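Writing this down once: the sequence line spells out the residues, with the fold written below as integer tokens. I am pasting one below:
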Amino acid sequence: MSEETKKLLSEVEATMMEAVAYLEKELGKLRAGKASPAMLGGVKVDYYGTLTPIENLGNISTPDAKQIVVQPWDKSVLHSIDKAIQAANLGFQPKLESDVVRIILPPLTEERRKELCKKAKAEGENAKVGIRNIRRNILEKIKKLKDSGVSEDEIKTSEKSLQDITDKCIKEVDDVISAKEKEIMSI
């Protein structure tokens, strides 16, 4: 295999694994019965006219499995944090206390668990589509190598290697999704 094809294949594997890592990060935001600071990952707070990620405004901790506490460094932003969490519609209500915002997670209903599983599957499908798009783009590049004098045998070998890498990454996505579903459905 030529250096060019080896480089393309190593590049594609790294890119596909980034898609899997992104999926894991997104699934970390899904609530699975246990409190996690990642649940507030997408929340943006209006901080003096600028939308700022909530994690940049204070400490986010989980004192126990059913509770998240946000302790801002600037106490004047407490009401803005409260409003931002409510506006994010994450399925729980924050409570303002003297210097923290406390979130008590309600128990998940069976219906909500199924809804979260659907959401996880949808995220998994998006990751698979991304991986397949990466494969398609690299496949075009591999086929263009024929014009630069690369043999047909090498192109076929590269295509098979590309498919093997794609299959491995798709299986990884399926494993991540099934693990998340198991986590969501366990009581």
The domain at 3-28+109-185 is CATH 1.10.132.20 (Topoisomerase I; Chain A, domain 4). Strands lie at 44-47, 50-53, 58-64, 67-72, 94-96, 101-104. The chain has a mean pLDDT of 87. The chain has two domains: 3-28+109-185, 37-104.
